[in-house]
Amino acid sequence: MSVAYISHADVGFHDTGWGHPEHVGRIRAIPRALRDDPELFGALTHVESRHANDDELGLMHDPDYIAQVRAVVESGGGRLDPDTVTSAGSLNAATAAAGAVLDGVDMAFDGRAARSFCAVRPPGHHALRDRSMGFCLFGSVAIGAEYARRKHGAERVLIVDWDVHHGNGTQALVENEPGIRFVSMHQWPWYPGTGAAEDRGPHDSVWNIPMAAQLAPQRYVDALRKGVDSALRGFKPDLIMISAGFDSLAGDPLGAFTLEYEHFEELTRWMVGLAEHHCGGRLVSALEGGYAPERLGVACVRHMRALL
Ligand SMILES: [Zn+2]
Predict the structure, then answer these.
(1) How do residues 272-282 score in pLDDT, each as one tens digit?
(2) How far is the CA of 163 from the centre of ligand 1 (A)?
(3) Among all residues, which ones are annotated catalytic?
């Protein structure tokens, strides 16, 4: 059983500046933490991702928006919106981030690695069809879900988002396709302000789980499990994807959930079991938020261990 660790050097060239919470130190913390676990390091299949091309980005984004990002980046970078900064390396970073998810999907379906973790940035789950939002340029996980449907004939995909923020971009990109179900647990009220429990999308294919800050950690674990169980009722996915934001860890500067490493291990093991039960173990996980770099690195390592 192989688990792929997918990344690309280019994700380190999306330069937002050290004063920005989504800085390059986040991604550097992951291989640093991984080196402290040589057994896991040796057990993972290390993959350098490809870059998603314009057709692949176009599965979920307007060509005009892709062209706009390219123009800003080629001019040396700049602000796409009040929160989302780009530099000269940002397009290569964002296309590598999406490409990593596409590689994870390919590997899950061709048997090279049923499960994978994509150590990538910028994150993607706030990005909308025609604009950036909340540090996110392209909706990598949503693109991966649609790609699995088009390229590999997946009829049903389940996306689970445990980032502390509502995955509003992912919801907007997938909610019109009933073959993709989306579960997001997030702090409420909190950025970006969307994701009420009553918001089920036009096909009732969205499960939003808004949660108060500072609850006992098991409350979050139980709520997410309940939401996922509900989403799986009468729905046997061909692929499960995780928007793995670790800003839901206790102490994160951009969130106030109380989850610890062991809770992510529990959730990961449980989701591996669901993937084994429903879809031959196929599970693609991609990093979203997580703004305390050292803890983010450890959380990713523990997550990958549980994937293995
Ligand atoms: Zn987040």
Answers:
(1) 999 999 999 99
(2) 5
(3) 126
